[in-house]
Amino acid sequence: MNDSKIARQIVAELPSLVAQNIIDDGAATALRRHYERQIKPSRSISIGLAISAVLGGLLVGAGIILLLAHNWDALSKPARAVVAVLPLLASIAFSCRAILRHMDSAAWREGCGTFYFLSIGASIALVSQTYHLYNDMAGFLLVWALLSLPLVYLLKSGAAFTGYLACVAARMIVISEDRGETGLLQAVFWLAAIMPFYARLAWKRRDSLMVTWLSWALAIALPIMAVPFYRDVRFTGVLVGHGLIFTVYYLASRCWFGGLRGLRAPFRSIGSLGLAVVSVILAFNDSYERPAWASDHGQINGLLACLICAGIVMLALGGFMLWRKISFNWGAACFPFFVLLAFVRVVPTEGDWAPMVMNMYVLALGVSTLVRGVRSDSLFSMNEGMVLISALVACRFFDSDYSFVARGVAFIVIGCGFLAANLVTLEKRRRRRAGI
């Protein structure tokens, strides 16, 4: 329990203490003055204010842009330039006030960060359109991202952090489509510039909602930034690459964020769901019906390089978790091994080897998740495992020539398994609470 909660409880108890003549009115007043200074706004109020500030910044920025667009043709070029810069100057003034006087207010920081970020983009676009400076989307996003980067550190704004990642991810896609570039060095630079801010917050406040927000933004942006690297890669390679990313997501989340799950653990949620979806897709023969991998040694070498890099990262994470005795799902950690096992055979001789191996992996992942749920008495994990096994069975049935009777019986058996597992777990919990 933090000091704010303790102070709030003490202040709430003061009237009853006075009524019972334990302390007098003077002592109660002195205690109230002392502890009220330690009471911080509740989290729900802070979240509401922050959300309202972000929405307010978005609406103000959008309204200014619409007003300018409505009267734009009636203005001269110098007037357009002045009007284009006015929102930026206003956002600078508000941000300076927030930095000097309101840095302890999330509403001020997020509202100013949102308004400032939108003002940068609007000013760049309007000035460029007025003087016909350039017509390059990649260049526009580059300048926008560079000018937004200081906002993240100065205002400590999650909205500015999210906007920065959106600009970077969009730029990566644009340069891939327009120029055919992967932008590896650029991606490293963009991430290196922003990661100290995220790492510092995650180190000090890993359970805070601010870190959760930033984690969602980062977890969504990274796979998008990876898309240009698959520009010349077959569909199977894209699946494998994203599967490796999702595996690293899961292990990193277990390593750093511990038992958090659901919306509070973005990397774990996206990693678990993404890995399950990728694995089920790779279990189909159609995933390998693109041009043969055997004749494309460049893609094979690229796949092996990705497997090696991901394997090194996973070994480091796994070693750390074993050292700290942090439990994790071994089925998820074995994805690179099964992928390597599948493609060692599919490269020289095409056939059903790779889908068969990935079917085995999906089954192993489902069973592993189910067993972890049973051991930890977690209905969520048990149902995760059952859903994964059910998805595999359903896909195999719809992909085969089984009769409707066989399919119906199989689904009934799986449904009974769902109900039985949940009932048994609930009965164990009831007996444990009753002391039986």
Draw up the topology in text.
Layout lengths: L2 H17 L5 H12 L6 H28 L6 H25 L4 H26 L5 H19 L2 H22 L4 H21 L4 H18 L8 H22 L9 H17 L14 H28 L5 H4 L1 H12 L6 H24 L2 H20 L5 H31 L2
Helix pairs in contact: 1-2, 3-5, 4-5, 5-6, 5-7, 6-7, 7-9, 8-9, 10-11, 10-12, 11-15, 14-15, 15-16, 16-17
Largest sheet: none
User: Proportion of β residues?
Assistant: under 5%
Count of DSSP H/I helices = 17
Average pLDDT over all residues? 75
Class based on secondary structure composition and strand pairing: mainly alpha
- Work out the number of β strands: 0
Shape: flat
Q: CA-to-CA gap between the ends?
A: 32 Å
Radius of gyration: 28 Å
Helix content: over 70%
Short description:
This protein is mostly helical. It contains 17 helices and no strands.
Describe, in plain words, how this protein is organized in 3D.
- The protein is an all-alpha fold and 436 residues long.
- Among the domains are: 1-39, no CATH class; 71-229.
- The protein is built from 17 helices and no strands.
- It has helices at 3-19, 25-36, 43-70, 77-101, 106-131, 137-155, 158-179, 184-204, 209-226, 235-256, 266-282, 297-324, 330-333, 335-346, 353-376, 379-398, 404-434.
- α6 (137-155) runs antiparallel to α7 (158-179) and α8 (184-204) runs antiparallel to α9.
- The longest helix has 31 residues, at 404-434.
- It is flat, with a radius of gyration of 28 Å.
- The two termini are 32 Å apart.
- The model is unreliable at 291-297 (pLDDT under 50).
- The chain crosses the membrane at residues 47-69, 81-100, 112-131, 137-154, 210-229, 235-253, 265-284, 300-323, 330-347, 404-424.
- Residues 17-159 form the DUF2157 domain.
- Keywords: Membrane, Transmembrane, Transmembrane helix.
- This is DUF2157 domain-containing protein.
